[in-house]
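User: Lipoprotein. Structure?
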Amino acid sequence: MKTSWRSASLVASAAAVLALTTACGQESAGSAAGSQNVGATAPAATGGLGAGSGYGGVDASATPGAGAGAGASAQGGTAGELAVSANAELGKILTDGNGKTLYRFDQDTAEPPKSNCAGDCATAWPPVPADGVTASDGIDKSLLGEVTRADGTKQLTVGGWPAYYYAKDTTAGDTSGQGVGNKWFALAPDGKKAKVSALAGLSVRKDPNLGEIIVDRNGMTVYRFMKDEAWPKPVSACTGACLEKWPAVAPVGDDVKGVQKKGLMSFSRPDGVKQQTVNCWPIYTFSGDKAPGDINGQGVGGTWYAVAPDGKPVGAPKQ
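Assistant: Predicted structure:
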């Protein structure tokens, strides 16, 4: 009986390994997963405010009011007549009299209205002045209000949410602040967040430099870490401080478009958090990417690369 039980156990173990092999394949990771590795630092061009701040990488030493220069300050300190503009990706968004996009911050509050963006944050995201604001057709004027900031100035609110410009929006219609830090969003006419609604949890974007790469539901580039493992099961070598720079992509289920479904699964990290994989490889976003279309994480440390629809790292050296 002992021999039979042992044989059955070995057969079951072999079957489990075979199942994982079939699901995840045997592509080499390039190097074995070891101890924590943050994958080197972000490129110098990502800005001076810190990748995790949610400020959007605008240098605090830059000329204050850079974002408002084409907005409020151009009209003598007023946003002028607010309008509803149609954006191909975001739908209807609020703009000022010069067509500049207005944003809201998730760390603010609407009930009661309160701004939690000051100092360097307010340099990157200049508050929209409340004085002299009017509203065009399509905007519920009862949603417009104001809040007194810590410095005594009056800031416009929409649906209770303090409104801001983004310093990196240089021309009318720019929406480069959308999704920055997963905390900043263009304002919809009702004061809610404008969101990219057409994107699946994971989809494919054609990048002019990299070709077809995977993006998340916010249009942010997805990356692979060459120190991770996929076989016989997904293993992430990015922990601790590494995860602050390279947030793990949460599970998306079957909500994908154009992405290979073989090996499309999630797994539990050592900290209990579930992470999405493509072809069984763990995937991440990069805190140094501040807007959809950014690829600042590409090639960082020689270990981080954008992901092709089949899960392979784009542009990684062949092993």
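The chain is about 10% helix and 20% strand. Residues 2-24 form the longest helix (23 residues).
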